[in-house]
Design a protein that fits this description.
This protein has helices at residues 7-17, 49-59, 73-80, 92-101, 147-157, 189-201, 211-218, 236-244, 279-309, 311-316, 326-349, 352-372, 378-393, 397-434, 453-460, and strands at residues 26-33, 36-43, 85-89, 104-108, 114-118, 163-170, 176-183, 231-233, 248-252, 258-261. The protein has 492 residues and is α+β, with helices and mostly antiparallel strands. It has three domains: 7-118, no CATH class; 131-264, no CATH class; 275-434, no CATH class. The strands form two sheets. The protein has a five-stranded antiparallel beta sheet with strand order 1-2-4-5-3, with helices on both faces. A five-stranded antiparallel beta sheet has the order 6-7-9-10-8, sandwiched between helices. The chain is elongated and about 100 Å long. It starts with 6 loop residues before the first helix and ends in a 32-residue tail after the last helix.
Length: 492
C-alpha cells in the first residue's frame, strides 16, 4: 500500500493496521511544522528520548523556518534532522515494519512519503563471558541478544573493508532481523548465494527460539542423525577466527549465538583454550579431548560386553571382583546411565548456589546407597564416572549429547545381543555419523573425507601463531558437486 499525500488518509490506514488506541506502548503525536500538519509515530522504549526531544525542538523552532510551509521534504529532512540516520519511504508496509523494528516515523501533510528516523535503542543485558565457553585467559566478552552490538563486537576485531553484514528478515509475524556476516575476498560465493536465497524463501511465522529454530529450518535433520551439523558460538573471538578462515556467520536478533557455515565434525572438538596456552600444552589438551570422544562412546558398552558375556576375561583383567549375572550387569549399567543423566539435568537447571552441592550429594550419598542396595556395583560406578568426565571434557555440549545417544544405543544392543549387537550397532553409529547432513552439501567428515593431510594436522596439533594465520581458504570438498566429488572454492 502506498502512502497518500493526504495526512488524514494515512492516519486512518494506520489505525486499521496498528492498535494505536489499544496498545499502550505506541507513541503518537500530532505536530505543527510551521503551518504544515505532521504526525509522529514510534514505539515507547525503542526510541532514544533525548535525541527525539532535540529533533522535535529543531523541527518546530520558528527561527529555523524560512517560511511557514514545507515545500521539499528531502531538503527539509536534510536541513532539520542532523542527529540520526534518516530515510524516505513511499510504502505504508515499509513504514509499519520500520516502526515495529525500532525506528520512528514522521508523516507530513502534502507528501506521499514518510520519514523514518533511526533513533532506536533496545533493552539488553551487559556483555559477559559465556558460561559454556569459559577460558582461563583471554577476552571476557560475549555476544548478547542485540544484533547491532554483536556486529560491533565483530567489527571491532576485524577492521577490514571486505567485512560485510547482509540483512534479511525472517518470519511473517516476527520479522526477525537475521544478518549474514562474511569477508568478500574469501567467502565461498556459491554457499553465500544459497544461504541468502534459503533465508529469503523461508515460510515461517516466527523464530520461536531464535537461532535454534533457524538452524532447524535451514537444515532439517532425520532422527537417526543426533550429532549437530551447524556449529554455534557465543564468543566474538571464536566467531572472528572462523570468519578469517572463509566461513560465514549468521547472527539472529534476540539471540546471543552465532551460527557458523559450513560445519564439520571436527569443529565441535575445538576450544579457544588451546590458543591461550603454549603450542605444546595446547596440543596435549587437544589430543586428550580427542581421546575423550571414543572413551565417552565405547567405555560403558565395552565394559558391559566383557562383564556380561565374557566374564572370564573380565575377571582376568580386573574389571570385576566377582561373578555377576549378565542380566544384573545390564540392569546396573542402564540404571547408572539414567542416574547420570538425572544428575546432570537437575544440576544444570538448579541455581548456581545449589548445583555444586547437589552434584556432590548425588554422587556420594546416592552412589553409596545404590551399592548397598545392590542396585549398582563399584565397578559400574567407576566406569560410569570416567565416562561422565570424558563427556564433560568435550567442548561442544550438543556434540556430547549426541555421543550420549549413540552410547545408549550401543549399551542396549550389547545388552540384548552381546558381541553381534555391539558390532552391528557400532556399524550403525558410524553410518549415522557419515550421513549427517551439512548445509551446502559439504562433507561432514572433512578433512578425513576428502582427505586433506595439512588441514588434518592443523586440527590435531596446535600450530604456533605465525603458522596458524588464515592465509588461504581450505578446499573442504563438497560431496554433491558432481562426478568429481570436489568443490572449487571461489573467491569473490
Amino acid at each position: 500500500m502506498d502512502i497518500s499525500p493526504v495526512l488524514e488518509e494515512n492516519l486512518s490506514s494506520l489505525q486499521q493496521i496498528l492498535p494505536l488506541a489499544k496498545s499502550f506502548d505506541f507513541m503518537t503525536r500530532r505536530l505543527k511544522l510551521g503551518d504544515t500538519d505532521a504526525f509522529f509515530l514510534g514505539v515507547n522504549g525503542f526510541c532514544k528520548t533525548e535525541i527525539l526531544q532535540q529533533i522535535f525542538s529543531d523541527l518546530q523552532n520558528p527561527l529555523y523556518m524560512k517560511d511557514n510551509r514545507v515545500e521539499d521534504i528531502g531538503r527539509y529532512v536534510n536541513a532539520k534532522i542532523g542527529y540520526a540516520q534518516t530515510s524516505l519511504t513511499n510504502s505504508l508496509d515499509t513504514l509499519v515494519n520500520g516502526v515495529l523494528s525500532g525506528p520512528a516515523a514522521l508523516l507530513i501533510d502534502g507528501f506521499a512519503q514518510a520519514v523514518l528516523i533511526d533513533v532506536r535503542t533496545y533493552p539488553g543485558r551487559s556483555m559477559s563471558e559465556p558460561d559454556l565457553e569459559k577460558v582461563t585467559k583471554g577476552s571476557r566478552d560475549g555476544f548478547v541478544e542485540t544484533l547491532l552490538l554483536n556486529a560491533n563486537l565483530i567489527r571491532r576485531r576485524i577492521r577490514s573493508p571486505h567485512l560485510c553484514f547482509a540483512m534479511h528478515a525472517v518470519g511473517t509475524h516476527s520479522r526477525t532481523d537475521v544478518a549474514i556476516a562474511y569477508l568478500e575476498d574469501s567467502v565461498n560465493v556459491e554457499l553465500l548465494d544459497k544461504l541468502s536465497h534459503t533465508l529469503d524463501a523461508l515460510q515461517v511465522t516466527s523464530l520461536t527460539v531464535g537461532e535454534k529454530s533457524l538452524e532447524e529450518l535451514l537444515l532439517p535433520k532425520r532422527w537417526w542423525n543426533p550429532l549437530p551439523s551447524i556449529q554455534t558460538t557465543e564468543r566474538p573471538d571464536v566467531a572472528c577466527s572462523y570468519l578469517l578462515e572463509g566461513h560465514i556467520l549468521v547472527l539472529v536478533d534476540n539471540s546471543p549465538q552465532a551460527l557458523i557455515f559450513p560445519g564439520t565434525i571436527f569443529q565441535f572438538t575445538q576450544s579457544p583454550e588451546d590458543y591461550y596456552n603454549s603450542p605444546a600444552v595446547g596440543t596435549y589438551f587437544r589430543l586428550v579431548r580427542f581421546l575423550c570422544i571414543p572413551v565417552s562412546l565405547l567405555l560403558m558398552p565395552l565394559f558391559l560386553l566383557c562383564a556380561a558375556f565374557h566374564t572370564d576375561l573380565a575377571l582376568s583383567v580386573g574389571i570385576l571382583s566377582e561373578r555377576i549375572s549378565p542380566h544384573r550387569v545390564f540392569f546396573y549399567v542402564i540404571a547408572v546411565e539414567f542416574l547420570l543423566d538425572l544428575f546432570k539435568y537437575s544440576s544444570s537447571l538448579s541455581s548456581g548456589k545449589f548445583s555444586g552441592s547437589l552434584s556432590l550429594i548425588s554422587g556420594l550419598i546416592i552412589g553409596d546407597i545404590a551399592v548397598s542396595l545392590h542396585w549398582a556395583s563399584v565397578e559400574v560406578l567407576f566406569y560410569a564416572a570416567v565416562t561422565l568426565l570424558s563427556s564433560l571434557s568435550i567442548s561442544g555440549t550438543e556434540f556430547a549429547d549426541g555421543i550420549r545417544v549413540y552410547r545408549i544405543l550401543l549399551i542396549a544392543a550389547t545388552g540384548f545381543w552381546g558381541l553381534p549387537g555391539f558390532l552391528i550397532s557400532l556399524a550403525l553409529v558410524l553410518l549415522s555419523v557419515a550421513t549427517t547432513p551439512t548445509f551446502g552439501g559439504f562433507s561432514y567428515l572433512w578433512p578425513l573425507f576428502p582427505f586433506n593431510q595439512k588441514a588434518l594436522g592443523r586440527l590435531l596439533f596446535r600450530s604456533p601463531t605465525p603458522r596458524a594465520q588464515p592465509t588461504k581458504v581450505w578446499n573442504r570438498g563438497r560431496i554433491d558437486a558432481g562426478p568429481s566429488g570436489g568443490h572449487r572454492s571461489r573467491r569473490r
